[in-house]
From TrEMBL:
One of its GO terms (molecular function) is metal ion binding. It comes from the Bacteria. This is Sirohydrochlorin chelatase. CDD domains: CbiX_SirB_C, CbiX_SirB_N. InterPro entries: CbiX-like, Sirohydro_Cobaltochel/CbiX. Residues 343-381 are annotated as: Disordered. Signal peptide: none annotated. Residues 345-360 have a biased composition (Basic residues). Keywords: Lyase, Metal-binding.
Amino acid sequence: MNLDNLDSKLNNQVAILICGHGSRNKLAITEFQELTNLIQKRYPNFLVEYGFLEFAKPSIVDALDKLKDLSIKKVIAIPAMLFAAGHVKNDIPSLLMNYSSKTGIEIIYGRELGINNLMISAACERVKDVFKQNNNLKPEESLLVVVGRGSSDPDANSNVSKITRMIVEGIGLGWGETVFSGVTFPLVEPGLKNVVRLGYKNIIIFPYFLFSGVLVTRIKRQSDLVAINNPNISFIHAKYLSSQSYVVETFVERIEEILNNEGNNFMNCSTCKYRSNLFGFEKEVGMVQESHHDHVEGLGISCDLCDPECNGACEIQNSNHNQEKSNSGGGLYLEQEYVEAHQHEHNHHHHNHHHHHHQHSIYPNSKHPLGPVTLRLPNED
């Protein structure tokens, strides 16, 4: 699309909004801002703003208010999320729809980054960087472990496994496995305990995340627990995606889908648990899709324990703050609400106002023996 041919008046009334998850980690926010700046450079004739769903400012509503004050009439909202799970399917669109209905501003919601040749290339480049930095490594003698965020949505979880396979075949790696940082199974530590039995001497751990934060730090800590007991195996950490050039190109692709009126900016609903009668998730078909994040939206106090990368100290505080969560089987474990990485608000903020309690569906695998019940807190290490 030739942006120079667009009517300047139209440009002045249309803005692009990048909708992020949010984090109390300062490095993660800085990385997000850098990504937004790169997108702005690709669209110099458009105003590009960003907002966060939770834990950081500006909130998405703050960003929309700013655009409204600038007389913006139409907003192209792109979720800065790798896959379509609860945030993409429920929280962000619910928030955007409510804002649009109250203000009259037209908001066009784009797709998540998803799986395409660009995102696969971005992932492959991060893994290839490991071989560039370690000349003695051979792909066919190396095992790749891709770590996904983890979700109660099986569609999003399965997409992480697809990314793993695409990297393995694209580079020609010896083997590939998929684990998760929370919510589902297998988690990093139990997953790696199984992986080391395969006999590979080089294990590459790749966090398939956009930015830094508590979960990326947790991945490193949990993998270190396994590495200590396997001194003959090299555990090598690849960098998360960040502002890799192919990631930026995918954001551009999502924006272009809307600007060009291609009509293909719809997410795939064929395996969505809310639309399809997926085995094991039949009770969630047709559930009301609403936001569950109004109670933490815009809480923008950064974590002062980070330096600037998350060091996991917040989880140590949580273990002290939540002693009653102790597992009777011995040791402290992060229960599912903490696996969801919402632990920060309990330590840094105490609210006096009443919260509405939303009805969450129960994830059927929340007590899987390789899932969240295995997640050890730092003071157990």
